[in-house]
Structure formats: C-alpha cells, structure tokens
Amino acid sequence: MAKFASIALLVVLLSGLCAASRVPMSSLGRLPGRRLLQFANITLPDLPYAADALEPVISEEIMVLHHDRHHQAYVNGFNTAVVRLQSAQDASNVSAIVDLTSLLNFNGGGHVNHALFWESLTPVESFVPVSGSLAESINDTWGSFEAFQAAFEGAAAGVQGSGWVWLGQDPATGALSIRTTANQDTLAAKYKLTPLLGVDLWEHSYYLQYKNVRADYVDAIWQVINWPEVESRFTATA
Ligand SMILES: *[C@@H]1O[C@H](CO)[C@@H](O)[C@H](O)[C@H]1NC(C)=O
Ligand SMILES: *[C@@H]1O[C@H](CO)[C@@H](O)[C@H](O)[C@H]1NC(C)=O
Ligand SMILES: *[C@@H]1O[C@H](CO)[C@@H](O)[C@H](O)[C@H]1NC(C)=O
Ligand SMILES: [Fe+2]
C-alpha cells in the first residue's frame, strides 16, 4: 500500500515537472540530466504607446515597420539561434556553438537594444526635460545640457553604416559617457557600461521620413526622449 502511494506521488511530481517545463513526459528518458528546463522563447514586447504617437517626429509608417517587422525579425532570429545552440550543446559540438555566437549576439542584441529604445521614447505631449541628479551629472560632465546634446549628435554623425549612439554610465564609478556601437552590439557587452539612452542609427529607423539626412532625425528625436525613464536607469553617486 505504501509502495503504491509513493509511486503515485512520484507520477504526480513528474507530471508537474513536465507541465512546468513543457517537456512531454515520454521524452524525459532522452533528455540529458543537466537541462530539464527548456529556454523559453522571447517574444516581441508591445510598444508602450500607439504607433502614431511619436508623430510628427517619427512617422507611424516607420514605427510599424520598425517594431512589427524589424524587431520581430530579431526576436525570431534569436529564438531560432537558441534552438540551434541547444542542439549544438546536446551534441557537444564546440565549433557549432562558437559559430552561433555572432547570430546570438546580433539577434539578441537587436532585441535588447530595441526593447530599451521603445521605452526611451514618449509622445511630444508627454515630454518633460531632464531633471534631478541626472541633469546635474550631465552638467558636471559636459558643462551644459546643450554641450551634451552637441557631443551626442557629433558622435552619432561619426557612425558609418548601421549602429547606435548611447549615453551610458559606468556602474563602478558612476561616470557618464557617450559611446557608439556598430550593428546590434550592446553597450554593456562592448563597453561594460549601463545604457541610459540609446538612439537607433540604422537607416530603417529614419529613412522613410528623413531620407538620407540622418542628422535631422537625431536633431528631432530630442523632442520625444522619455527623460523620466532614462533617469530611472541612472544611479546617482554622491
Ligand atoms: C521557439 O522559436 C523557434 C524559432 O522560431 C521555434 O522553432 C520553436 O518552435 C519555438 N518554441 C516554442 C516552445 O514556442
Ligand atoms: C559540428 O558543427 C559543424 C557546424 O558548425 C558541422 O560542420 C560539423 O559537422 C559538426 N560536427 C559534428 C561532429 O557533428
Ligand atoms: C545646468 O547648468 C545650467 C547652466 O549651464 C543651469 O542653468 C542649470 O540650472 C543646471 N542644471 C542643473 C540641474 O544643475
Ligand atoms: Fe532598429
């Protein structure tokens, strides 16, 4: 009787585990013991405002394509790469794992960067200027907000091809700096800095509206920066 009870308990526990990890129970015997939980696919986050909410600074057409097509493609590409990584790990194939790193960095970085970008923007009507300890730190670093803007725009102008311009913070010292990254490299991976604000400089983020004049897009985007959100990423240092 006690034996039946413990077998019943084991079955209940295993079904719970299988349900939680979305692994069919019949496949348990084939799974390597080191990884019962599968990586959950990432999903495209909703825009935190309507697609036309950033007009006239960024058109609805750009936002729809940028979010629904481009960001979705990074999400899909990352999920596909993770499935391939799991196969490569199961096969202990080091070359295959190494080959996948650029695909994981590109698509995973594309997801991370765009998720931060959407949250960094806000409709013109809800815009509020930078304030508090971040405003003071920007003053301390560049002399004035206008000097910071000029430095940021200058750095953006220097990006050849696709990339991003960033306001970042050193997590160890609290120091602010402006950096640029190529393609979908992340600020954290490239420079060990915390991203406070990132502006997408890929053509897909402005071309339909600003054509080849990227500087006009960077100049206009100041009107829709979500400074309270950017400030929430900043850690004040005494
Ligand atoms: C995760 O995404 C990959 C690639 O799009 C897909 O093949 C796979 O079926 C997805 N897995 C789940 C559990 O949705
Ligand atoms: C390991 O993966 C590579 C692809 O990156 C493939 O060419 C090779 O055949 C694989 N090796 C084995 C032993 O499966
Ligand atoms: C930043 O400096 C300007 C002068 O350049 C000053 O008017 C402003 O109050 C300063 N802001 C902060 C938050 O210190
Ligand atoms: Fe983009």
UniProtKB/TrEMBL annotation:
Keyword Oxidoreductase found:
yes
Q: Which residues form the Manganese/iron superoxide dismutase C-terminal domain?
A: 131-233
Q: Which Gene Ontology molecular function entries are recorded, alphabetically?
A: manganese ion binding; superoxide dismutase activity
**Stored SUPFAM superfamilies:** Fe,Mn superoxide dismutase (SOD), C-terminal domain, Fe,Mn superoxide dismutase (SOD), N-terminal domain
Name the UniProt key words of this record, in alphabetical order. Answer: Metal-binding, Oxidoreductase, Signal
What protein am I looking at?
Superoxide dismutase
What InterPro entries does this protein's entry cite? Fe/Mn_Superoxide_Dismutase, Mn/Fe_SOD, Mn/Fe_SOD_BS, Mn/Fe_SOD_C, Mn/Fe_SOD_N, Mn/Fe_SOD_N_sf, SOD_C_sf
| Substrates-to-products reaction catalysed | 2 superoxide + 2 H(+) = H2O2 + O2
Recorded family membership: Belongs to the iron/manganese superoxide dismutase family.
Which residues belong to any copy of the Manganese/iron superoxide dismutase N-terminal domain? 43-121
Instruction: Describe the function of this protein.
Output: Destroys radicals which are normally produced within the cells and which are toxic to biological systems.
Q: Where is the signal peptide?
A: 1-20
Q: What is its EC number?
A: 1.15.1.1
Question: Which residues make up the binding site for Mn(2+)?
Answer: H66, H114, D200, H204
